[in-house]
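[job 4471] stage=fold_predict status=RUNNING
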Amino acid sequence: MEAECGGIFKNTGSIGFRQGMVYRMSILKTENITKLYPGTKALDQINVEFESGKVHAFIGKNGSGKSTLVKIFAGAIQPTEGSFYLDGEKIMLHSPQDAMERGISTVYQELSLVPGLTVAENILMGRLPMKGKLIDWKAAYQTAGKLLGEYHVELTGKEMVADLSLWQCQMVEIVKAMSTNPKVIMLDEPTSSLARNEIELLFEMIRELKKRDVIIIYISHKLQELWQIADTCTVLRDGKFIGKTVMQETSRQDLVKMMFGEVEVKTRPEDLETGDKVMLRVEGLTRKGCFSDVSFEVHEKEILGIAGMLGAGRTELLRSIFGADAYDSGKIWFEGEEIRNPNPVRMKGKGFALTPEDRKNEGLIQMMSVYNNLCVASIQALAKHKFIQRKKERDFVSRQIEELQIKVPDEELPVSSLSGGNQQKVVVGNWLNTNPKIMFFDEPSRGIDVNAKQQIFQVIWDQSRKGISSIMVSSELEELLEVCHRILIMHEGKIIKEVFPEDVSVDELYALCMG
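[job 4471] inference complete, writing structure tokens
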């Protein structure tokens, strides 16, 4: 980054921002970037340009090629053909370290922090201050604390990442990226795990970067937030450049059409009715520090939403009912039978299914194939005399790939090779193969595009028609209004209100969630 301040400042990866400088505009530009994989052209002669001092939304449906281009900019992969330039200089990157040294930082959707290290060690990884041959821990914690304070993150450098919540990890990841004085910062789904007030703090960070003439590339599936933060929007579809538009001159319908062509955005079908039978009843459920005295019922075929800010206890409640985490007191009934001391194996046998919030670490086995991930939860149903029934297994896999429209060239590929939306479908398909009676969907649309969201919602509605009940937790309150029959509001671990989608606006719902 050059500064017109009596000399030239070269980004050296040191900590913090230089104050009182006037920065020259930077430009990141591609020239006919193409990326080929066996049987797939992920990018097809892409020509795009991003200027500093602006927030550039970069969007496209799953499989559009946007993640591939981001990985090229980040040095994780190299293009098959074409080049890209930063301030007119051709850039050749062979590793993420090369990218960081050239002033390109990336915050990926799937976070890269090391759980067993402290916040300071993660932020300053590879750049820890030394005193002789030893690490200067006092200086490290002071530096990390200063960076965290600059961005209003209420953590200390000594805290262990393993003890942090998902949104706290997201904030640490962003501070880490910003600590290297980047010319370019790429944010991949940065708000996917943030509450509304936390999103505004992030936006304040981004606006500060705009003032410093940093090139900001902002990847998000949350179209509704783009008008709050982005200046322009670049769209890819099926590996091709579709267009670049000014946000304030563009409607949501315009963006959806650019991303997908023609897509029907659906709402809950009118024929979805709840049954009279009570499937699940929870009474006085309490887990100290997470939730207290929670009571509610779920009826047959009902889609029940649970709304609340992050930290309200929604995820913890689902996990305790499912038996993944213990609770301290209260009772759970399912189909009229009280269930004592639940555990996941027992609850699965009763007809429960849980698609977790963190699909990467809790919902999938990344090194295993798509095929095997679709059968993990139903392995007992597939076994006969300790041997897997291969034909039945094949039927399970084929049915879910077809019905959920999982886009995969080869089901033997590792599930980690799929887009976020297709990974989420594998998580859902894995549990549908257990023939559940009630499904818990924890943030089912996190980090997936509009089209994939509609497909997931359709799955939930289809299961309702089959008699299956669902509980859905989502930080996107608009989605709860679109999908659910009824919504419970959690605040600081308690159910404080029940509302029906037809009686409340999204702004009113947000206000209720904030207490």
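[job 4471] summary: The radius of gyration is 24 Å.
[job 4471] exit 0
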